[in-house]
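User: Fold this, then the next.

Assistant: Folding the first:
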Amino acid sequence: MQQREVEIVSALGLNAIASAKLAKLAAKYQCDVWIARNGRKVNGKKLKPVMILAAGKGSHIVIEADGPDETEALLAIVALIADGF
């Protein structure tokens, strides 16, 4: 399992469009992807749970990936967030 804490840099935060992009990207990988914020941990491959995190600009989230392609998944998701979705 690998994990990484990242800051949401998009001005709109983790809104519906950003959440959809994140969940769609995570779903491309075989590994499990989890996203945590403020003690809540959700499945990163599901749109609604990701949206429920309500992570605005400047929020910190922890991304966990566990499985055969965890490194690739984690790097891709971190890059997506760093690029502002």
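Now the next one, as you asked:
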Amino acid sequence: MYKRTHGNYAPGEQKARNYDWNFNPSDHCFGYGEKKVLNGAAMALHNERLEEDFPKTVIIKKTVEDHKAVANDMLGVSKNLGQGQTNRGPDFVHGIKNV
């Protein structure tokens, strides 16, 4: 009775919505599928890494990173003016309180 009136289903119980599928849903697997990797366990155990499998590390100057930190605004963070950030605590807010 509660299933019909309250939608009270047991955990993991499938709800039958009486959809008109063009296939048998009990034989079909829904979701994201990855391509099959041959020798996946053997490749995980090898110490050698192929160069094309990993992105190249790019080393740039610290001045470039400092400029990005000052020039770009981060959402939810006060603007970095190059003066350093003080520890304001988790309850700090900008502005005044609404009445």
